[in-house]
Structures are given as C-alpha cells and as structure tokens.
Amino acid sequence: MINQDEKIKREFISPDIGNEILIVNTILTLIYFYTIAFAFPVGNKILFGILIFGEVYHVYQALVYMYTIKKMNYEFPRNMAYSPSVDVFVTVAGEPIDIVSNTVRAVQKMDYPNFKVYVLNDGFVAKKNNWHDIESMAYHLGVGVITRKKPGWAKAGNINNALMQTKGEFIVIFDADHVPHDDFLKKLVPYLIDPKVGFVQSPQFYKNYAKNYITLSSWAQQELFFGPLCKGRNGFNAVPMCGTNMIIRRDALSSVGGMNTSITEDFVTSMYIHQKGWKSIYIPEVLAEGLAPEDFLSYYKQQFRWARGSLDVIFSNNVFFQKGLTWQQKLQYFSAVSFYFSGIIVIIDALIPLMFLFFGIVPIITSTMQLAAIFIPYIFVTLYILEKTSNFSFSFRALAFSMSGFMIHVAALFSSITGQKVEFSITPKKQQSGNFVYLVIPHVFYIVLALVGIIFAFVREGLSASFITNTIWVFLNVSVFIPFIYASIPSAMKQESIKKILINEYS
Amino acid sequence: MNIVNYEFMEKTQNNSLQVLMRFIILCFCMFIAVGISYLFFQNQSLRLDESQSLWQSSHSSKMIISLIGQDVHVPLYPLLLHVWLLIFGTDIPVARTLSLIFFVLSIPIFYILGKRLYAKDTSSFATVLFSISPFMNWYANEIRMYSLFVFVALIHMYFLIDILKNDSRRSWIGFTVSSLVGIYTHYFFFLLLLVDFIFYLTNRKNFGFNAFKNFLRVALITSAAFLPWMTYVFFLGKISNASPNLLSPTSVDLFNMFSEFFIGFQNDFINTIFLSLWPIVILFGFLALRRNMVIQPGTIYLIMVFSIPTTIAFFGSIYIRPIFLSRYLIFTMPAMYLLMGWVLSRYPRFLMYVLSCLAVLTFIFGFTVEGLSEMTPTKENYREVATYLEANTLPSDIIVVSAPFTIYPFIYYYHGFNKVLTLPVWDQNKVGPIPSFKEDQLPGDINSITKDHTNMWLILSYDQGYSEKIRIYLDTHYQRLVIKKISPGLVLYEYKFSY
Lengths: 507, 499
Description:
The complex is a heterodimer.
Chain A: H1 4-9, H2 19-39, H3 45-68, E1 86-92, H4 97-108, E2 115-121, H5 131-141, E3 144-147, H6 154-165, E4 170-175, E5 179-180, H7 184-188, E6 197-201, E7 205-206, H8 213-233, E8 246-249, H9 250-255, H10 265-275, E9 279-282, E10 288-290, H11 296-316, H12 327-338, H13 342-359, H14 368-389, H15 396-404, H16 406-418, H17 441-461, H18 465-487, H19 499-506
Parallel strand pairs in A: 1-2, 1-4, 2-3, 6-9, 7-10
Antiparallel strand pairs in A: 4-8, 5-10, 6-8
Helix pairs in contact in A: 2-3, 2-14, 3-13, 4-5, 8-15, 11-12, 11-16, 13-16, 13-17, 13-18, 15-18, 17-18
Chain B: H1 2-41, H2 48-57, H3 61-70, H4 76-88, H5 92-117, H6 120-131, H7 134-139, H8 146-165, H9 169-183, H10 189-202, H11 211-236, H12 251-263, H13 268-276, H14 280-287, H15 297-319, H16 333-345, H17 349-372, H18 382-392, E1 397-402, H19 407-413, E2 419-422, H20 442-450, E3 455-460, H21 467-477, E4 479-487, E5 490-496
Parallel strand pairs in B: 1-2, 1-3
Antiparallel strand pairs in B: 3-5, 4-5
C-alpha cells in the first residue's frame, strides 16, 4: 500500500488535459455569459449591473484558468553533473528552536558537493527572546549564522543582508519550518545549467496537513496553486517565487537589487526578475516539507497577509504597466493577484438571492429552466476540468475555504486601497488555542439573514418557483460557508475532526 | 495454523453472506417491480400508443412489417408482440406483461453493469432506484418497445464496458449482437452507437490494440444488417405520413425530461416544485468534489450516454425536425441512475445515507402519485369514456373522435351500437395517411355527420392543433349539452343537432 504522504506528493504529476474539453468549456462559458448579459430581459437595473460585474469576473477567471492549464507538462534542459556553489539560507525570526534545528539538520544532510548553510537569524531585530539560542544552535551544528542587528524590511531585509555577506553562485531559501529532502539540490540545480534561468521553484508542501481540520483545509487550498496553476505558468515563463523551497541565481537577484521589500517580497521579486528577461522554472515535485497554520487565527492572518500583499501589487506595481513583461506574463501575474477580488464577487453572488427573498427583485427576467439549461453544463464541465487538472485532488473543502474567505479578501482590499500599514508577520508554527468564532460572524449573520429572508419571501410569494430556486441558492451559499464556520470552533483543531476524512479521502 | 483457517472460514462466510444479501436485494428489486406493476399500472386504460401496438401486431408478420415501414419505428417489438399475443392471448394485461418481463430482466443486467463499473453497494443502490423508477415502471407497463429498448441498451452498454476492461472475443460478440438487436428495436439506438464511437475516439488509449478494427467491423455488420430495412422503408416512401405532430422543444421540455426520469409523469404543480429545485444539482456537484475520487473512463461513458443523445435530440429537434420525446431517450436513464449512485457514493457516509433515503422516498412518492392520481398528464382513460358512452347514448346519437388516430384505443373498449367516426373524416381500414385538417371543410364534414342523427358525442384528445377550432365551431353552431373531462387532455362533449 502506498503511504498517503507519498500519494499526496505525487499528485502534482498529472497528464495534460485534452484541448477538446477546453474548447467545449470555452464555448459553454461564452454562451453562458452572452445569454446572461444579452438574451434575457433586464429586471432591476442596479442588480443586473452587479450581476454582470460578477459574471465578468467569473468568466475571466474561467478563461484564464483554461488558458493557463492548456499545457501543464514541460521539459527543460538540465545537466545532472552541474554543481556550482550554493548558499543555503534558512530564514529565522523567532521560530521555536526545535523547528529550526530540525530544518538545519536536514539542510546539512542534503546530497550535494558544493554548498554552505547559513541561518539568517532575525530574532534580534524582531525582538524575539530566542535569537541567542538560535546562534548557539547554529554554532553547535557547525553552520554559518548571520544575525542582523540593523532592523528593516523583515524577511526581505534579512535575505538582502545575507546576500552582502555571502558569495555562492546560487542561493537557496528555506523558511525555518521547511525541511528539505536530501535530493533537493540534486533535483533543482541541474536546471540552472541554462544561464538564462533566474530561479527554480518547488512546491510548498505542508507535512502537518493531517494534524487537524485547518491544516487539512489549508493544504487543500494549496493544491490547485502548486498543481495545475504553477505547472501551467511554466509555459508562459511566469512562475512566481513562493518565498521558500527555491533556488535563485545570485546574478538574477542582484539584477533587481535583491529581494523586494513589500510584504509579499517573493511575488514582487519574481515579477522584477521576469522583467529583466530571466527565465523561471517550476518543478512539481515535493522536495521540502513545511508547516501549515494549525489554528484558525493563524490561518486567517496568513491569508490576509497574502491577500494584502497581492492586492498591493495591483495598486502600487500595476502589472499592466510593467515594462519588460510579455502580455502573457502580465496576464498570469494579474490573474494571480486578482484572485483576491473574489471576496467581492462571493458577496455579490450571496446577496442576489437575498435581494429576491427580501424585496422580490431580480437582475434578469427569465424562466428558471432557461438559466439552468445554460448554467448546469457550464459549471459541471468547469468542475470536471478543475478535478482533472488537479489530478482529482480538488475538494469541496478547498472550494469552501476559497469562497468563504471573502471577508479576508474584502478586508485586505480595503486596507490596500486605504494604504493601511501592515507589518510583515510570520505565520505561527505552533497551534494557538482559543475560540475563533468571532472571525466568522459575517457568515453566521448571512445564515440568520437567509432564514429571515426565506420566511419573509414565503409569506409574500407562497411556494412559487422563484421562491424555491432562490431559497436553494441561499442554501447553497450556506453549505459552502459551513466548513469555514466549523474550522473556527475549537474542536476543529483536534485530530479527531478529520479522522473520517483521512480514511475516506487520503487512504 | 488453526487461527489462519478460522479467519479464512470467517472471511468466506462473510463473503457468502454478502453475496446472499445482494442476491436477496436483487430478487427483492425484481419482485418490487412486478408488485408496483400490478398495484399501480396494469389496470390502467389502454393508451393511444398501446392501441396502435395491439392493432399493428394483430396483423400477419408481412403486414406488420409493411405497417411499421409506414410508421416511425422499427419492427422487432411488434413482431415479438405478435408472437406473444398468438401464444398467450390478446388481453391488455397479457400484452403489457411482455414489457414487464423485459423490465424485470433488465434489473439484473443493470446490477451487473453497475457492478462492472462501481462498488457493489453503489450498484445495489442504483438498482433499487432503477426498479422503483416511476418512469421506468410506467413504460414497463405499456404495450410499446421502450422496456425492450432499455433491456437491449443495457446489454449493449455492459458489453462496451466489458470491451474496455477485458477486450475479449465474448465481449465483442455480445457487443455486435446487441447492436444488431438494438437497431431493430428503436431508431434512437443509433444515438447509443454514436456515443460508443465518440467514447472510443476520446478514450482510444484505454482500449485494446485491435479495438478500432473491431469497431469498424461491428459498424459494417450493423450497417449491412440495417440496409434492407432502410431500402424497404425508402421504397415504401410513406414514413413521412406517420410522423407525429411534435413541437420544437424548449428548455422546459428538456428539464421536464429530467423531472420525468426522477418523479415520473406528474401534474404541473408537483413538476414546477421539483424543477425549481434545480440549483441543488450544483450543490450536489460541489459536494461530490472529493480527493482521490478519480473519474474513470466507465463514468465518462455513462456521462456521454446520458448527455450526448439528449443534446443531439434537443438541438436536432430545434434545428432539423422535432423528435424530442423523453420516452425515445429512455435508454439514457439507466446511465443517470448509475451516475446518481456513483455521486452519492462520493459523499461522506452520513450525507450519503440521508440523500439515498431521500432519493428512494422521492421515487416512491413519484410512482405512487403517478399510478394513483387522476391528474397524471399521460393517463388516457378511453376505457371510462367508452363505458360512459355505452351507458348514455341513444340509438340516434353519433360518436366522433378527434384526433382521428385516437379511434384505436376508443374502439378497443367501446362495444356499443352507435356509429363512430373521426374528424377529419378518415377510414382507418384504407391504406394511406390520415387526411390533414382543413378548416374550410369542417362545416361540410359536420353536415354529413349530422345527417340522420340527433346528438353528437365528441371525444377530443391528442390535440394536433385543430381541436380548439372544432370545439369553437360546434359551440357556435349547436347547443352543447354535456362537457366532461375524463382525464388530462381527454374531454367529452355532447351537442344537440336536432329535436
């Protein structure tokens, strides 16, 4: 029997999906949009405008996804004998010493002839108590340690500081909790034989995915990104850096002045590297294993940080005005960051049936069957493509978490537009205890609103077709919110919460 | 050693117990199908299509072939029915039993097909759905070819899956034979062959090395076997006379078909409620997204069987010629039930049990209401109208039936002495098509009917687009004495011509 971890790690290895199904779905998507936008009489004009805004986003997401994954498997030149000098940076900012030492020991064990290990110790500037212990641990293990004394620019500042004190031709970056496999360098360095390759990225796998409901769901969300999306982006030379488990050519990094100092330093740096004409490669093989957030609050903060950082790219580094990027690279970067607009779209989709329940207004006037006839084929073929391209790893939980994170995305959007200052914070590596239900108050409020709306509409309409259909739409939204609400309660942090899921889906 | 033996024995006993349980479930399903038939459907009045089958099959084999050649169907079922009626008699329950037998025999085939594709539990559950399906039970009790069509289609699908998994000689022979039988069961069987072809094209790598050659061989054999019939029909040149008067389908018709596959034929209120629930399908789709639940080629085949013929029939009916009828697509229904079973098997256990129970209850509700309600839209109670007229007509009365072809089920039950005519006037014993309705001829036709009669009983059903014109003409020219709604779409009127 295959070990379940091994099974997960192999998931990124999926064949290309045929063009036939992509063509069919593109046609279905366009028919759907055309029909919604032009074929039906308009009901409430404001609601119609909002609906079309949401549908434009959906169609854009669907089309870009299909364009990205039309080919996912690429071959790149490599030389297995190539062994240039490599500096391995383990970035630390107060993480528990046992986690850091575990990573450093694994780094030391990597099978490669020519590398030096440095612990980039930011504990001092981050005012963490264990910075001295980290230094001692590094000395004890016989690896280099660079402790910053001058603060600034968080992780990016830490790396840039180390860049000035090291000389290796290539730099590998590991977060403190990301434990590399022995063959990490042997697998990735050969691709750097091509002098135009700026960096090679490998997946960010959560080895603690089976710890509780939150880790499991966090990993479920990651799979689509590190599976079809990153693989597909190889075809456009638009693979983003993910901050860890990557190897970068020093020249490439120097050409953009080191790591960018925004809160998503990795993402922006890769964009700048691409601008300078460097190539990127994504290798869909798990070569290092990290830790997912183990509690709902940490998950929430991590998602907020990613959302805020990505949205900042739109508002302060508009990808469409970046010179040196091809239009495909611009499209890929924009699609990566525009995912975080989905919060608004989820709210729109959730509010439209409520508008009917409370006020009896609808965006379009149509027989419910006409809508079904165009929507059902479109949505099911789309789901099939998602399943097929993710090698059947895309789950309802991943979908539910992506959609239910709407408040995180909206909050990030608001803070990005208003320019609120956000400090770079490291996702806690140990579980925070507590009840985090307050983070899902909007979702609970929606359920209450839905119940009131259903009663209200029933009194007004009776058992009409529109009442039933809109009630089911509301019910669908509620069903999607439930896993997210569940994740906020303390019992979701126990391993028992996922016992059955592990047996049913991971064994 | 003893422990090992004990474990082995226990495992064997468990397996035997499971096999026995499944056998019992299967027998139970077959028994249920027979039970539903006798409790709800066997005693219903003969419907138009059934009367046509009985009429066609009452002729000699040669004549049957000639009649079917002028109809929109193929001759296997009428010939089988002919033999069946010769052996067992011509009563309606006897004739309906032939359809029931094909349905009951379809149940184990369905189970075996399901077992070939999915886990035994999934197959067992889908088999339960199949055996209590309101739509399937309806046609299992109709003197038409539809249960035979499903039976042959299931065998055909089984052998296609067998080819995919085994690629044995046995499976190719079965596939060829079922293709030959299928094309003479219903013209829509060609849609299933088309699905096979598309499935092969899109899944070539999953088939054996010689599959293409073998498929080509089957295609040639099937075409050669069908050529004589096509030539015969072509030279007969009368098929267009018999085409049913269908309208272009709308999205409502499309979803009505799905609704009928679930809850059978229901009145508008129930149907509307059921169809309004459609977004729940999206939720079911979302919930079915689970890790490691790979969609196997067999499932793709079922999806194709379910969707491709429906799509072709729907758009073909809009853009070429209306042929969209849910009963013609009955062969896609088993695929839908198997897919339902498969989707439910992907859910967490508790949800699976809840939804499975809900599905079974919905089906039970469906066939109960369909069987017992007088409002079931497909019920045609010609028996009641005939009984009523036998009791209420005077010797000077005349009975007129419209549309003309509805004379068949009526005269099957009517044993009175009054003359029975049709509007437009048609002699069903003469070879040739039914005359088309001409509004300017209506007064003349009515005048010829009123001669020598004081009252006219008009039975209107199967509106061919002119029922309302006939009614308005009579309402405005004669005194209406009686209006009686017998069953949905079947109305009886009495008009006074003279005193």
